[in-house]
Amino acid sequence: MESQAKQGGEIEKIEKITGYQLPNKFKIVGLVLFIVSVLSIITSLKLYLVGVKYYDLFERIALTTMVLGLLVISVSREKMEDELIAKIRLQSYNYAVIGTVLLYLMLPFIHYAIIFSFSSMPKMEGSKDISILGLLLSVQIITFRKLKRAYDEE
């Protein structure tokens, strides 16, 4: 009896974290963040800010704001949030993660093939952020196993 209550508590904790959504009004906030950051990147390229001392910092802030805007849009509720919307949201996240991981793993080989075609000394360059993908997939696997165990014990 006590282990069921404990498992139920774990399920509630995970669902609280994974089921968190912002109100629908935040879609506008996310869209504004996204548009402003894209416009600032385009403007900085037009104004030739590439040579400016803090261009790298400016570019990183703009890219981070762009991704943050997309994240806010992604976790904002729909006007009519029901089980079908929840299922569609879950499927879209699933496809996005799988597609991103596959593309991220293939890009260094595509890049190498292009460089190999035009260079006499091709160099294999991979992404330095591959540990983030490993962390993402590890968290998914651990959460899945925990939820599966908790639901099986109910």
Q: Topology, pairings included?
A:
Blueprint: H1 2-18, H2 26-46, H3 55-74, H4 83-118, H5 130-152
Describe it for me?
Keywords: Membrane, Transmembrane, Transmembrane helix. This is DUF4199 domain-containing protein. The termini are close together. By secondary structure, this protein is an all-alpha fold.
Q: Features of this protein?
A:
single chain; 154 residues; mainly alpha
C-alpha end-to-end distance? 10 Å
Percentage of residues assigned to helices:
over 70%
Number of helices: 5
**How many distinct folded domains?**
2
Secondary structure category: mainly alpha
Described by the principal axes of the CA atoms, the overall outline is: extended
Number of strands: 0
Mean pLDDT over all positions: 81
Biggest beta sheet attributes: none
Low-confidence stretches: none
Q: What portion of residues belong to β-strands? A: under 5%
